[in-house]
Amino acid sequence: MGRIVDVIQSRRSVRTFENRSLTSEDRAYVEQVIQSIETPFGVPVGFRLLDAAEHGLKSPVIVGACDYVAAKVERVQGAELSLGFAFETFCLRAAERGIGTVMLAASLSRKSFEKAMEVNPDEVMPVASPVGYPATKMSLREGMMRKAIKSDERLPFSQVFFDDSFGSPLSLDQAGRFAEPLQMLRLAPSATNKQPWRAVVDGDAVHFFEEHSLKESALGDIQKVDMGIALSHFWLTTQEQGLEGRFATCDLAIIAPEDVEYVTSFVAAR
Ligand SMILES: Cc1cc2nc3c(=O)[nH]c(=O)nc-3n(C[C@H](O)[C@H](O)[C@H](O)COP(=O)(O)O)c2cc1C
Asked: For position 1, what pLDDT does the model report?
């Protein structure tokens, strides 16, 4: 893998493609990546690479995609977190090879995707993504969507990350060895770019929280998928910088604002 921080910084969602299938080498690459992804949250994620024409897969926001990747999980504790983590790990590995992706939760012909994925009632398929070669020019619609939801912007570091408590904004300097993983987390993609992640740095630990700003649906909590995505950015960066640690559930005394839910913590080795 190239430098993950470079991949994270150059990634963006791709909705306009060159209208050709993946080459056989790239198909093999995608298959290999989706079969080998592991997550620290313990729920297995089932991926498939699907031919759009064969399965009648469509999206009103996508132009020129011939292939899709979709993923499903059992409806159990930690499902969305695992799925987001695994799916974003795949998207970053794809971006590294010049293959464009965009997670789609709403803008897809859901019935045909679920059929192609053989989703059982005890399973959920929160997102799927086209996989293909980014066109040199994005469609008018894609450009307008990006502007409307301010896809190129992110909330300021000190507005989402805190020092010891939610009342005390964290500066980059105060973040110390967590600065780079948190900077990379901040660049994560999220549903309608809501950026639900919040984090409190507390000694050797970083506690992660979800700010609920979208309603839950029958598909579960899509912002938990966002949290899994964010944690993959954080985790992959710690791995690259050799910062040892693990995810754990901590017994916290931190008082969180309304609608802000504790998710998990990263505890660094001393
Ligand atoms: C869980 C999730 C669901 C998404 N669902 C859709 C969708 O249904 N339609 C769409 O056009 N974009 C969707 N997106 C893409 C986001 O709008 C995009 O990631 C965000 O605006 C940030 O832009 P960027 O990925 O280019 O950084 C989704 C992203 C995530 C993470």
From this structure: 57
pLDDT over 70 (residue 131): yes
d(CA 37, CA 140): 34
- Cβ-contact 17, 134 below 8 angstroms: yes
| pLDDT over 60 (residue 50) | yes
If one counts every other C-beta atom within 10 angstroms of the C-beta of residue 6, the result is: 11
Q: What share of the chain in percent tops pLDDT 90?
A: 96
User: Stretch 37-57: mean pLDDT, rounded?
Assistant: 96
Mutate to test the pocket of ligand 1, among 81, 192, 225 (most ligand atoms within 8 A of CB): 192
Give the residue numbers spanning the domain of 89.
Answer: 4-142
The number of folded domains in the chain is 2
Q: Which single residue is written with the structure tokens 């963006």?
A: 12
pLDDT tens string 179-228: 999 999 999 999 999 999 999 999 999 999 999 999 888 888 999 999 99
- Span from the CA of 251 to the centroid of ligand 1 (angstroms): 33
- DSSP letter (8 states) at residue 17: B
Return the higher-pLDDT residue of 217 and 79: 79
Q: Are residues 54 and 134 in the same domain?
A: yes
| CATH value at residue 205 | 3.40.109.30
Distance CA 66, CA 245 (A): 40
Name every protein residue with a CB atom under 6 angstroms from any ligand 1 atom: 12-13, 61, 102-107, 127, 145, 149, 151, 189-193, 222, 225-226, 229
CATH number, domain of 34, equals 3.40.109.10
Give domain status of residue 150, yes or no: no
As a whole number of angstroms, the distance between CA 245 and CA 267 comes to 5
CA–centroid distance, 268 to ligand 1, in Å, is 30
